[in-house]
Amino acid sequence: TGSMFISTDGGNSWRQIFEEEHSILFLDQGGALVAIKHTPQPIRHLWLSFDEGRSWRKYSFTSVPLFVDGVLGEPGEETLVMTVFGHLSHRSEWQLVKVDYRSIFSRKCLENDFQVWTLHTQGEPCIIGETRIYKRRRPASRCILGKKYGETVTYVPCNCTDKDFECDFGYERHSDGRCLPAFWYNPSFVTKECSMGQSYLNSTGYRKVGANNCTGGVRDQYTAQRHPCSSRAPRGLHLITSDGRLATVSGQNVTFIAHLEEGDIPRTRLQIEFGDGTAVIFANLSSVKGGIKHVYKHGGIYRVVAQVKNNLGSTRAILFLHVNCPIEHVHLTLPYVAITNQEVNLTAVVLPSTTGPLTYFWWIENKTEPIVTLEDKAPIRFSTEGITSITIQVSDGNSILQDVKSIAVFDSFRSLLLSFTPNLEDHNPDIPEWRQDLSKLVKRTLGEVTALPEQQMLLAILPGLPTAAELYILPHRDATEEGLNSMSLEQISDMVINTLNQNRVQFELKPGVRIIVSTAHLTLAPLVDSSPGHSGSALLMLLSLAFVGLAVFIIYKFKRKIPGINVYAQMQNEKEQEMISPITQIEGTPNFTQSELTSPEEFPDDQHDTQKLDASEHHSKTQCRYHYIRSNVRTSALNSLKVGQAATRALTTTRQPGNTTW
């Protein structure tokens, strides 16, 4: 248990009233005090005091002892009614005892029942710059104030002293009691809004404590002093965007905020160069409080320069703003098939091409971290065979787009270019879905004729006209089986070529339209590979074709000097089929699954007419122009082929690690 103490002078002094803990209730604004002892035993008495706790009288509030659980008073300080609640025994119900003390007070308080009392702190009557004088009831007066009584308080201001002031912002109190500037604060700073002919208040290092009402004394000594404004050179110019970002999208409003730490704003001129050949000038900084808006029409990195100047000096600030055209398309190009441990170039094509600075994230299969580059190319080596998924993500700072492709990796493979009878061109819409369906049909037909499992074939119909395809012959996963699975890639390739040359691979595209698949004959040279047995024939082929090429060149050069010859030599490009490099994807990469490497793939078309986007579209796409480059290589590429070059590119390819032959 703890003793109970009471104070009647605002906490300056305390005296003990009980040696044990009691519940205290104030009646009629302190005119009477009620105390009930805290005890686990049942009680029937309480204590009452009319002289601020100096003397106590014992009263009975119940005829039967009660286990008291608590005491409640009615709302308001002037209450004269209290309620005691408890129970008669541990098993009994709640008992409420209402005690009304109004009969104790015989009269209302008169003027002579009050005395004047001054609030003080250890004898000091000035508190927060003023003296508070209260009119309160005398301790011995047993009278009732009632609800209509209004407390009377008189406030008398005190003279200001050092205690009524504290250190102002930017100042610190030192050991001698003075407020001096902190190391980071410049006391001579003048607000930038202060102009010639105006005045400003300069702090003395002190300010009056909040809610302090003192007057006179040292108030004038510590109050901020007024000084006239003078023209100053600008200092501390800052240039930012309203959203704090250093990147934006072309066609959007950019709001620049120019902030000057010090200077005569009404007499300081502002000039901003936006970096795109335009600039604005403002007569004073007061007119640009809402910011300066500008729209960039093209992507790029712009050097924005803000300069302020008056007759006393100048200063400037520089901001580098990245303006991007929104990325609309990302296309990943990579070979269909790769050789283990040989470098493969991955390329990301981003449209439009004028998007500005980009960041490329190359995710290889299931690696937890990407390869991050600032270029659109990445050289990669694959050490194991299988199907590898590659994801490219391109970020322009505002958005991210991605493309996913797969690549088949083997220790060796053979490739073969295929051509079709000309009647197929009449039915070629040159769309990815058509090429995908045709790829399935050709591969199924080839498998039925040659008995070659579709798991060993990968066929891609190349976009453009005339229609051509590239066939990849892959090694079988179980070389111990009999039949075709026990044949080498060279033997399988020869067998497929013989089948194609015999025009046995045919299919009906539609009723009455039969298509024949054959090899793309660019030359009469035999197939070559890297084995020693073929090196002699390959050399003979090269020499023969070089001789033929030289003869054609001589005839073309001197055709006007040879009598009887009036025919211009020309390449028979219209009848020849184009041969595409077997490890270079022109427009896309097929997506593979582990169980089926040979599903024909869809290669996104490059619709390559120069396009100008509508000016009303979002992000001002008119300014983000880009050009699609048409990839119809079947005619233009063949027109540029020389006879000697054709001799070095065979129709099939055998690749062994470290020994590759075309």
Provide a brief overview of the structure.
By secondary structure, the chain is mostly beta strands. The strands form 13 sheets. The chain has a 5-stranded mixed beta sheet with strand order 20-26-25-22-23, with no helix packed on it. A hairpin with a 6-residue loop joins strand 8 (81-87) and strand 9 (94-100).
Describe the SSE topology.
Layout: E1 4-6, E2 15-18, E3 22-27, E4 32-37, E5 45-49, E6 57-60, E7 67-73, E8 81-87, E9 94-100, E10 114-118, E11 130-137, E12 152-157, E13 165-167, E14 171-173, E15 179-181, E16 199-202, E17 206-208, H1 219-222, E18 225-228, E19 235-241, E20 247-249, E21 253-262, E22 269-273, E23 279-282, E24 292-295, E25 300-310, E26 313-324, E27 329-333, E28 337-339, E29 343-351, E30 359-364, E31 371-373, E32 377-381, E33 386-395, E34 400-410, E35 414-420, H2 432-450, E36 457-462, E37 468-473, H3 489-501, E38 506-510, E39 513-519, H4 535-557, H5 633-639, H6 643-647, E40 654-656, E41 659-661
Parallel strand pairs: 20-26, 28-34
Antiparallel strand pairs: 1-2, 3-4, 4-5, 5-6, 7-8, 8-9, 10-11, 11-12, 13-17, 14-15, 16-18, 19-21, 21-24, 22-23, 22-25, 25-26, 27-29, 29-32, 30-31, 30-33, 33-34, 35-37, 35-39, 36-37, 38-39, 40-41
